[in-house]
Specification:
- Helix content is 48%, strand content 22%.
- By secondary structure, it is an alpha/beta fold.
- The N and C termini lie far apart (34 Å).
Amino acid sequence: MSKASYVRAMFNGIAPRYDLMNAVMTLGQHQTLRRIAARLARPPRDGRALDLATGTGDFAAALRDIEPSVRVVGIDFAMEMMRLGQAKYPATNFIAGDMLQLPLNNSYFDCAVNGFVLRNVADVRGAFAEMYRVLKPGGRAVSLEITTPRAPIWKDVFGIYFDHIMPRLGGMLSGKPDAYRYLPQSVRAFYKPEQVVELMRAVGFRDVSFRWLMLGTMAVYVGLK
């Protein structure tokens, strides 16, 4: 099974408990994290915004919280996730699609965002290339992702919670233990923040930067087209 097929099946399977598990994994901070990232995207008045791998639509909603007039498109290939998102946020235009082959026009969006998705993508550079393609000149790309903290004390605490407590808790609450064993594995296997910055630069983004959030357990990346 390809990584894309595995990820699609996994997210469709955990969709009913996805929002609850996001709250558990981030100690209730997932909406705050999305709002921070949405502010960095700077959605303009009457502009167009894209939320890639939108899932249940919370990042798209955060963009509208920042700028109510922005028109948001949410795209995902996990249909069960999007069905829940459509029920929660009817103002978002949800469409089915793969972030590696976006069914969208060139230079169309003012900002493009994604949250907690890059480590699930088979070709991260390709995902950034698609974000770059659909952004207008001067458009902003923002990605929010889990990362391993570097401070020794927080790295140890993170390891205990993320590698041992969270997989058991996630499996118990969702009934899908494999999905929550995959999660820490995907974080450990993912690029370091400096490498993500280089991938963004490699496809053309400029003024690329990242910042730590939540004691170094999250990183948010920003780049301009």
